[in-house]
Amino acid sequence: MLAVIPSPPTNGFHLGPVFVHFYGLCYVVAIGAAIALTRRRWRAQGGDPELVYEAAMWGVPAGILGGRLYHDITSWNEVPHTWWGWLAVWQGGLGIWGGIAGGALAAIVLLRRRGVDVPRFMDATAPGLLVAQAVGRVGNYFNQELFGGPTTLPWALRISPSHRPAGYVANPTFHPTFLYELLWNLLLAGALVWLGHRRRIRAPGLFALYVAGYSAFRIIEELLRVDPAHHLFGLRLNLYVAAALTLIGLGWFIRTQRPRARLGRRGRATGLLAAGWATYALTGCGHAGYPPPARLAHPPASAALRLQATPIADIPLMSTAIEAAGEGRRT
User: Fold this and answer.
1) Which of 115, 119, 171, 203 has its CA 20 to 30 A from that of 257?
2) pLDDT digits (tens, 9 = 90+) for 74-112
3) pLDDT per residue as tens digits for the range 279-296
């Protein structure tokens, strides 16, 4: 095979006594990118860009809690058998879908208290979330995770033996599904920006398309991936979640774009709740923190940095996260 994507030589570097994981750095950059892009889009709509920082501050703890609870519910066999095990994020295990739900709902509560147009704000965040997710996927390369089945295509990803799943030790190259998602996220982000400028899309139509578009691609991705995951009727659990969110997103978009589609208070709350379940995930990955192979050479990457790359942190929080210890994987 003449052309393959090589395995990374290392997953981080030492900064004094601290080992800094590239995975964590990618998520710091991702969070910063999401905040910066959302601030720019919200300012262009006449909003206060400082509100983005405030929403991020609320979203961080809620996202961590939501992501951990999702992991505890869907991966109960991986929760440490101690009274504090359900909160042990430093040992890995944050589900993207739960993280998005928690972060989004917390931000919505804040925005409603501030009297902000929540649907418009959601539309402003959608492209930034996708860009953040794309940047965050680079971290999966350094962790040698989230790859698909074996392949000999020219862009195949070489995985070191210690990171290959059981049953695939003899296969040297795999589909770089994290790269597929990275490219899709950037394309979808560009499409949403284009639609927002060239078409009259009623808010939160762009966010609904974000939910549907990302989730639709996750269906394909889940069919390719071979890492350990819980299954239902022979298919990965996240495939069902992605399929459901694709339908919800499409239905949500159609409803918001209908003439005079102004929802009442109850209908609006229901729509935002559905969005919440879709929001804090979209970067990419329900079953998170699966146990690393016994031969794993590197200690797992920082769980605190494994947050779905939503705009949910400001610079001080990022600095604290880089120093966090422990490692986990993001699905």
Assistant:
1) 115
2) 766 667 777 677 766 555 566 777 877 888 899 999 999
3) 434 433 444 434 444 444
Beta bridge partners of 157: 5, 174
CA 212 vs. chain centroid, Å, equals 14
* 98 touches 66 (CB < 8 A): yes
> What is the model's pTM?
0.77
Q: How far apart are CA 101 and CA 114, in angstroms?
A: 20
Locate 34 and state its tokens: 């999401």
Instruction: Write down the pLDDT at residue 234.
Output: 92
Q: What is the pLDDT at residue 279?
A: 42
Helices 118-143 and 22-44: crossing angle in degrees, nearest 10, is: 160
**Does residue 113 belong to any structural domain of this protein?**
yes
Please give the C-alpha separations between residue 270 and each of 65, 105, 211, 263, in angstroms, as whole numbers: 22, 12, 15, 10
Measure CA 295 to chain center: 27
Cα dist. 239→82, 233, 301 in Å? 31, 11, 25
Q: Is residue 329 part of a domain?
A: no
Q: Is the pLDDT of residue 37 over 90?
A: yes
Tokens representing residue 210 in the block: 């974000």
Distance of CA 113 to the CA centre of its chain: 26
Measured distance CA(109)–CA(185) in Å, rounded: 27
Question: Tokens standing for 228?
Answer: 């350990």
pLDDT at 71: 73
For residue 2 the two structure tokens come to: 């003449």
Identify the pLDDT of residue 94.
65
- The alpha carbon of residue 97 and the mean position of all alpha carbons in its chain are separated, in whole angstroms, by 8
In order, the DSSP letters of 5-47 are: BPPPS-SEEEETTEEEEHHHHHHHHHHHHHHHHHHHHHHHTT-
Longest dimension (CA), the chain: 61
Cβ–Cβ under 8 Å, residues 179 and 43: no
Phi, psi of 5 (to 5 degrees): -85, 120
- Residue 63 within a domain: yes
Q: Do residues 295 and 266 make contact, with C-beta atoms less than 8 angstroms apart? A: no
- Give the separation between CA 39 and CA 52, rounded to whole angstroms: 6
